[in-house]
Amino acid sequence: MILLDGKKVSNDIKNEITEEVKKMKAKGEKVPHLAAIIVGNDGASLTYVASKVKACERVGFESTMIRMSNTTSEIELLDKIEELNNNPEIDGFIIQLPLPKQIDTQKVLMAVDPDKDVDGFHPMNFGKMALDMSTFIPATPFGILELLDRYNVETKGKHTVVIGRSHIVGRPMSILMGRKGFPGNSTVTITHSHTKNITQITSQADIIISALGVPNFLKAEMVKDDAVIIDVGITRVVDETSPKGYIITGDVDFENVSKKASFITPVPGGVGPMTIAMLLKNTLLARELRH
Ligand SMILES: Nc1nc(=O)c2c([nH]1)NC[C@@H]1CN(c3ccc(C(=O)N[C@@H](CCC(=O)O)C(=O)O)cc3)C=[N+]21
């Protein structure tokens, strides 16, 4: 079994980006500037945005975090987005999800200037992705592709089973794995809450990408020998004995599944850190696009 070490690879990527930023500075160019809007006080969301800001500092990007209250109206958020769209200092920005229920997420994501949409969530960018046009690929799927690429995991002709059809992971991932090129050229099955007999499907998979959010959902009996396992789940499970009061748990029963897998991502230290690295990569692309 080979561990797909997202922590290590994301560090390599951050070092590469740091070098790019140094070159930009040497040429007297403005460094990339990422902004993140966060609405409300969700603990996990605040942690993720804080790590994105920290990652910006680490590579030499500028960053701005914009906090808005839990009672923010849709109009107020749309106004803020318009401000960032028109601010020439900002190369790219994200709106941390999920949003409070008074706000229509789809409407908000459509308001982002597609050229600054470093999350790749605007329908224009999602469409471009599906049509193999160059665009921002959502950070989590992009991070998974990058991991498969850097470990040279064969995807051509393989059967990839994606668990979950979310707009930010499962759906784009299912499109990307079936695209031409590498990593891609897989035969893709997408499964969801209405899928019948999921074990019958997962046990035929050469590659499983689980983005469900149910701790320890994927058991050894559901996986064939030498499968490649990508765990996108990150659920905080209460644990009094750990310092933070919770532990981060993936969708995969790692202890048992890792014994059968050829490659597997750990949680934490797998897909999560890659997501952050690829957001930086998209921000660098956004900067180059505007240059
Ligand atoms: N507009 C938007 N864009 C996103 O990219 C986005 C989002 N909204 N909403 C929530 C999800 C989740 N997400 C994660 C990023 C990093 C880790 C990460 O670094 N995880 C660490 C553990 C972090 C911890 O200790 O909590 C790890 O897996 O090793 C996890 C999850 C980005 N998301």
From TrEMBL:
InterPro entries: Aminoacid_DH-like_N_sf (IPR046346), NAD(P)-bd_dom_sf (IPR036291), THF_DH/CycHdrlase (IPR000672), THF_DH/CycHdrlase_cat_dom (IPR020630), THF_DH/CycHdrlase_CS (IPR020867), THF_DH/CycHdrlase_NAD-bd_dom (IPR020631). Residues 4-119 form the Tetrahydrofolate dehydrogenase/cyclohydrolase catalytic domain. Its EC number is 1.5.1.5, 3.5.4.9. It holds the Pfam family THF_DHG_CYH. Pathway: One-carbon metabolism; tetrahydrofolate interconversion. The keyword Amino-acid biosynthesis applies. GO terms for biological process: L-histidine biosynthetic process; methionine biosynthetic process; purine nucleotide biosynthetic process; tetrahydrofolate interconversion. Keywords: Amino-acid biosynthesis, Histidine biosynthesis, Hydrolase, Methionine biosynthesis, Multifunctional enzyme, NADP, One-carbon metabolism, Oxidoreductase, Purine biosynthesis. NADP(+) binds at residues 164-166, 234. It catalyses: (6R)-5,10-methylene-5,6,7,8-tetrahydrofolate + NADP(+) = (6R)-5,10-methenyltetrahydrofolate + NADPH; (6R)-5,10-methenyltetrahydrofolate + H2O = (6R)-10-formyltetrahydrofolate + H(+). One of its GO terms (cellular component) is cytosol. The keyword Nucleus does not apply. Residues 138-288 form the Tetrahydrofolate dehydrogenase/cyclohydrolase NAD(P)-binding domain. GO terms for molecular function: methenyltetrahydrofolate cyclohydrolase activity; methylenetetrahydrofolate dehydrogenase (NADP+) activity. Catalyzes the oxidation of 5,10-methylenetetrahydrofolate to 5,10-methenyltetrahydrofolate and then the hydrolysis of 5,10-methenyltetrahydrofolate to 10-formyltetrahydrofolate. Homodimer. Belongs to the tetrahydrofolate dehydrogenase/cyclohydrolase family. This is Bifunctional protein FolD. It comes from Xanthomarina spongicola. The lineage of its organism: Bacteria, Pseudomonadati, Bacteroidota, Flavobacteriia, Flavobacteriales. The gene is folD.
